[in-house]
Amino acid sequence: MRHIMGVDIGGTFTDFSLIDDQGGITLWKEATTPADPGVAVQRGLEALANAQGLGVDSFVGSLDLFVHGQTIATNTVIQRNGPKTALLCTEGFRDVLYFRDGFKPDRYNVSLPRSKDFIRRDLRLPLTERMDYRGEPLIELDEASVRAAARTLKEQSVESIAVALLWSIMNSSHEVRAKEILAEELPEVPVVLSSDVLPMIREWERTSSTVLSAYILPRISSYMIALEKYLSENGFGQNLLVMQLNGGTATVKQIIERPIYALASGPAAGPAAGLYCAERVGVNNVITIDMGGTSFDVCMVTDGEPALTKDMRVHDNPVGVAAVDVHSIGAGGGSIAWIDKGGALQVGPMSAGAEPGPACYELGGDRPTVTDANVVLGYINPEFFLGGRRDINPDASNRVIEESIAKPLGLSVEQAADGIFQIVNTNMVDAIRVVSVEKGIDPRGYSLVVGGGAGAIHAGALGVELGMKQAIIPRYGGVFCSYGMIASDVRHDLIKAFATNTSEFDLARANEIFAELEAEAIAELRAQGFARSRIKIARFADAKYSNQIHELTIPLPSKGKIKKSDIDNIAEAFHGLHERMFSYCVRESAVDLFHWRITAEGRLPERETPIQKRTRKPASEAQKGTRMVYFRAFKKYRRTKIYDGGKVRHGMTIEGPAVVEQENSTIVVQPKHTLKVNRYDDFVLAIN
Amino acid sequence: MPNISTVHAPKPQAKSIAKRRVSVRARKSAKTAVDPITFSVVLNRFNTIANEMTLTMEKTSWTSIIALARDFSCAIYDAKARQICMMDALPVHTNSMHVVLKEIARVFEGDIHDGDVIVCNDAYSGNTHVGDFVTACPVFHKGKHMFWSMTKGHQLDCGAFIPTSTPAAAKDVWQEGLQLPPIKFYEKGKRRDDVVRMYLANVRWQEWLYGDLMAQLGSIWTGKRRLIELAAHYGNDEVERYIEAIFDYADQRMAQEIRQMPDGDYEGTSWLDTDGQGGTDIPVNARVSIRDDRVHVDFGGSAPQTPGANNSSFGVMQAAAGIPILCTIDPSIPHNDGCLRHITAEAPLGSVCNAQYPASTALATIGPDDTMQDAVYKALAHAVPERVTGGNGRVSCVPFFSGTDTRDGQDRSWGCMFFNGGPAGGASSKEDGWPLLITSAGMGGLKILSVEMSEMLYPMRVDKQEIGADSMGHGEHHGGPGVEIQITPIGGPIECHLFGDGTANPPHGVMGGSVAIGGGSYKENLETGKRTYCSSKGRLMIEENEIWVAHSSGGGGYGDPLQRHPEAVLESIFEGLLTVECAAEVYGVVINKATMTIDWKKTEARRERMAAERDPLEVVVPTTPGASDWVQKRLRDGDEYLIDPQ
Question: Which residues of chain A neighbour B434 with C-beta distances below 8 Å?
Answer without folding.
Answer: 104, 112, 114
